[in-house]
From TrEMBL:
Protein keywords: ATP-binding, Disulfide bond, Kinase, Nucleotide-binding, Rhamnose metabolism, Transferase
Region (Disordered): 456-476
Species in which this protein is naturally found: Catenuloplanes atrovinosus
Name of the protein: Rhamnulokinase
Domain of life: Bacteria
UniProt xrefs under InterPro entries: ATPase_NBD, FGGY_C, FGGY_N, Rhamnulokinase
Length: 476
C-alpha cells in the first residue's frame, strides 16, 4: 500500500496545532508542524475567542504541512459563530467560560423541564451548553441578524471550503440535538425560542466536506469526530469492551463507550452525559474539571517548571487537603491557588502552604474525582470495567496516572498523549480506505504503533474512601 498523509487541525482551549500524520503500511507517525497560542480576549466584559488568530494559525499550519491526502478539524465543544445572510461572521465567538450563562441556565432548564431535556438530548447540565449560550443571546441584535449557526470546527471548515454543515458528534453537545433521532430537535429549538433555520444540515464523520480552496492542490476537508473528545475516544487503544477512559487535558472526560444511551433518572441525577461518538457510539461520561486547575495555578505562578513541581508534589503528604474539582468556583479563569485555599478554609482543612502542596492537593483531588466518576459510569451503565485508559496530555503526568490507578483500584494504561490528533487522522485514513473498517481495527493499529505505559494499583482503597467522605461524596 502506498504511504498516505493527513493533516489534523486540533484546536484546544490553550493552543491550536496542525499535525501531519503519515500512514505507511503498519507504521503511523505524527509530526507537529505548527503550534500557536489560543489566547481568549476579554472585550467589554465578555470573554471572546480570537477566532481569526486561530484561523491564521490553521492556514499557516496547513501550508507548513505541505501536500496531504486530506484535512480533518476538531476543537472543544459547545461554542459557535453566527453568520449573516451573506456568510459573514457576526462578532467573535464567545468563550464557554464567560459568565453570561450563569443566571440563565437554571431558568431555561426549569422552563423546558430538566427531565424532558434529558430524555431528548441525554446531556449533562453544564451552564455553558450551547442551548444556554443561545438563550442568553436571545434579544441581541446579533442573534436577530443571524442566518446560520456554525460550531467552531464547522466554521473553520466553512472558511476553508465554503461548505455549510454541522458535524454530529459536536452537534450532540449543544443540548439542541435529538440523540435518538440523530437530528436537530425541532421541539427544543422551538421551546428555546430559536429559529430552526439557523441550524445547518448534519454531517457524519468520514464524509467529504469540500476542497480547501486556498491551499495548493485543494486537498479534501473530511469531517472527523469534530468534537475533540469524540476524536480522543476513537484513539483509546482498548482491546475489548471492558474499559473506562479518561480523556485528560484541560478537562478530564471520564466514562465508558456504549452502543445505546443510558437515559435513566439515576444517570440524570448524577449528571452523566450521552454524547454522540464516531460510528454511532455513545460517550457516556461526566466532565471532571481536569488539568485546568493546574494550568490556571501555573499561570498565576508565572509559568513554573511543572515537571519539577510534580516531582516535589509526589513526595508530599497524601490527602493533606482535598477539594471538589467540579465546584463551580473553579470554572472561570482566575487565581486558582487562592480559590483552592478558600475551599480548604471553608471545609476546615489545612491550606496548602506552597506550590508543591497545592499541586499535591490538585492531583489527589483529580484522582479522587476520577475514581468516583469511573465507579459511577460502571454502576449507571452496567458495564464492567477492567482497565482505565488515560489518553491526552494527562497521560504524560505519571503522578496523576499512578494515583488514578491507586484510587480506582484498577490498572491504568496511559497513552497515546496525542489521542485527539490520532482519532482525527484515523477517521480520515478510514475514509481514504487506508485503515479500518471498524473502531476495533483502528484501535488495534494504535496498540501496534503507539507507546503505552501501564500503572498497577498499589492498594490503600480505604484511604481513598476516607478522602471521598471528607468531601461528602457518596460513592457507589
Ligand atoms: C474538551 C471539551 C469537553 C467539553 C469542553 C467544553 O476539550 O471539548 O468535551 O465539555 O471541552 O467544550
Amino acid at each position: 500500500m502506498t504511504a498516505r498523509s493527513f493533516a489534523a487541525v486540533d484546536l484546544g482551549a490553550s493552543s491550536g496545532r496542525v499535525i501531519r500524520a503519515r500512514l505507511d503500511g503498519g507504521t503511523l507517525t505524527l509530526d507537529e508542524v505548527h503550534r500557536f497560542p489560543n489566547e481568549p480576549v476579554p472585550v467589554g466584559g465578555t470573554l471572546h475567542w480570537d477566532i481569526l488568530a486561530l484561523y491564521r494559525g490553521v492556514l499557516d499550519g496547513l501550508r507548513a504541512a505541505g501536500p496531504v491526502d486530506s484535512i480533518g478539524i476538531d476543537s472543544w465543544a459547545v461554542d459557535y459563530g453566527l453568520l449573516d445572510s451573506t456568510g459573514a461572521l457576526l462578532g467573535n465567538p464567545v468563550h464557554y467560560r464567560d459568565a453570561r450563562t450563569t443566571g440563565v441556565w437554571r431558568d431555561v432548564a426549569a422552563r423546558i423541564g430538566e427531565e424532558r431535556l434529558y430524555a431528548v438530548t441525554g446531556l449533562q447540565q453544564l451552564p455553558f451548553n450551547t442551548l444556554y449560550q443561545l438563550s442568553a443571546a436571545i434579544g441581541t441584535p446579533q442573534l436577530a441578524a443571524a442566518h446560520r449557526f456554525l460550531m467552531i470546527p464547522d466554521l473553520i471548515a466553512y472558511w476553508l471550503t465554503g461548505e455549510i454543515g454541522a458535524e454530529i458528534t459536536n452537534a450532540s453537545t449543544t443540548q439542541l440535538y435529538d440523540l435518538r433521532k440523530r437530528a436537530w430537535s425541532s421541539e427544543l429549538i422551538a421551546q428555546a425560542g430559536l429559529d430552526e433555520r439557523l441550524f445547518p444540515p448534519l454531517r457524519e464523520p468520514g464524509t467529504v466536506i469540500g476542497r480547501a480552496r486556498d491551499l495548493d492542490g485543494g486537498p479534501a476537508v473530511v469531517a472527523v469526530g469534530s468534537h475533540d473528545t469524540a476524536s480522543a475516544v476513537v484513539a483509546v487503544p482498548a482491546a475489548d469492551a471492558h474499559f473506562a477512559y479518561i480523556s485528560c487535558g484541560t478537562w478530564s472526560l471520564v466514562g465508558v463507550e456504549l452502543d445505546e444511551p443510558v437515559l435513566t433518572e439515576a444517570g440524570r441525577a448524577a449528571n452523566f452525559t450521552n454524547e454522540g461518538g464516531v460510528d454511532g457510539t455513545i460517550r457516556y461520561l461526566r466532565n471532571v474539571m481536569g488539568l485546568w486547575l493546574l494550568q490556571e495555578s501555573c499561570r498565576v505562578w508565572g509559568g513554573p517548571d511543572l515537571p519539577g513541581l510534580l516531582a516535589e508534589a509526589a513526595v508530599r503528604e497524601p490527602f493533606a487537603s482535598v477539594v471538589d474539582p467540579d465546584h463551580p468556583d473553579f470554572l472561570a479563569p482566575g487565581d486558582m491557588p487562592a480559590r483552592i485555599a478558600e475551599f480548604c478554609r471553608r471545609t476546615g482543612q489545612p491550606v496548602p502552604a506552597d506550590p508543591p502542596a497545592v499541586v499535591r492537593t490538585v492531583v489527589d483531588s483529580l484522582a479522587l474525582a476520577h475514581r468516583r466518576t469511573v465507579r459511577e459510569a460502571a454502576a449507571l451503565s452496567g458495564r464492567r470495567v477492567d482497565v482505565v485508559h488515560v489518553v491526552g496530555g494527562g497521560a504524560r503526568n505519571a503522578l496523576l496516572c499512578q494515583l488514578t490507578a491507586d484510587a480506582c483500584g484498577l490498572p491504568v494504561l496511559a497513552g497515546p498523549v496525542e489521542a485527539t490528533a490520532l482519532g482525527n487522522v484515523l477517521v480520515q485514513a478510514r475514509a481514504a480506505g487506508a485503515a479500518g473498517p471498524g473502531l476495533a481495527e483502528l484501535r488495534a493499529l494504535l496498540r501496534e504503533t503507539q507507546p503505552l505505559t501501564r500503572y498497577e494499583p498499589r492498594g490503600g482503597q480505604d484511604a481513598w474512601s476516607a478522602a471521598a467522605s471528607r468531601l461528602g461524596w457518596d460513592e457507589p
